[in-house]
Each structure stands twice: as structure tokens, then as C-alpha cells.
């Protein structure tokens, strides 16, 4: 995966936590992440790993979701938009309800929306922050994946709203689960259009029971997955499903505050 911040591609991520000290200590110890103080009100605390920009950190204490419940600790994926108003209109036309969010200063503007399968995705119109770095180094993003129990409806939604160019990769990952990527692993579509692969969509309805839920997942590079799991467990995390694909081994991890991510490596 390369840093191709075309509209509809993942370009930013955040980690929100109602226990910032505990979350930041965990990721500092696991990945070596550093957390800069926010530059102003409502702005992100920028996460870096060995000098590379990873994403933003949000203190969610006192924040509530659209249902009025306390905002849980979680990672968020942001898809690029060059016109947030137009993207919101397209989302409504596709049957989704965009939700406004506090604008993080001059860094950019955002909304979030639930796709037809129930996965929440953020939409980012860049200001001073265009996106994260993708150096393929430990502690930085390796892959972005939407798992959906409403695969067909979700695929149509991301095409209609974000102009995804879907490439069928069924059989290449997740033991035959229906799978498509936004863009081609070769970097070029069958018609010759340049379109590097930037993220994937999996049919969660056909996965094992515990995996049958709709959500976006972020995979992070680690030199060795087993060692990463051992370190995460020592720091209070829980290890979930593990496995391998042609792109390496993986392990689902839930951090001590409840945020889920995936380790990806050898």
C-alpha cells in the first residue's frame, strides 16, 4: 500500500480514548508512539512513530455518540474528500445520515457516517493536515479494511459516495471470504487507469461467529507478530483472532481501554 490520498482513500486515522494517560502509555510502550500536545482547542494531539506521522489522538472524556452514550475507546479511519458538503449530499442520497463533528481547527474539516452495514467511517477534507505517513515501519499503518455484514450494500455505498474502483480479490485473503479492494494491487485497473490499492472490503457475514460484525480495522506494522502479541498482553491487552494471508501473519488486539486494532507482520 502506498500513500495515495485520492478522494475516497484512507488519509488519516485517530485514536479516541476516555482514559488518555492509560492509552498513551500503552501505545508508547508497544509501538514507541509519541503524543504531541494539541496546537489549539479542538485540535488533535499528533501521534508520531520515529518521526513519522501516524494520526491524531482525541481525549473523549465527556463526549457522547449520536445515541447519547459515552464515546468508547476506538480507532477511526478517515476517507479523503475534496468537497465535504458534496460528499455529505452523496451519502444522504445513498440512504446514510452524515453526522457533523467539531472541526479540528485549521487542520481540516470532518463528518462521520454509518455505512449500510453499520460500520462508522469518518470523512476528512484536508486543511493543514493532508494525511499520515506510510513508511512501512513498525508502529505505522499497514492496511485499512472495512468488514461488513452487509457486503453488497456496503460495496455499492462506497462506490456511489466515494467513487471506489473495486477489484475482486476473493480467495486471496481470509480463506475465501468475499473480498474486494479499492484499487488494484498492480497499481493499474484492467482498462489501464492508474489506481493503486488503498484499502479493502470483506464480507464479515461469512466469517467465524466472533468476527461477524461491521467495523473498520487498521493494521499496524510489527516486525514479528508473536512477539508483538506477547508485548501487548504484558501491557494489559487481549489477543483475539490470529491467522495468515499472502501478505503476512496477523493478530487482532484489544487494548486495555477497549480499542481494537490488528498487528501485521511476519
Automatic annotation (TrEMBL):
PROSITE patterns: VOC. This is VOC family protein. Residues 9-126, 140-266 form the VOC domain. Coiled coil: none annotated. It comes from the Bacteria.
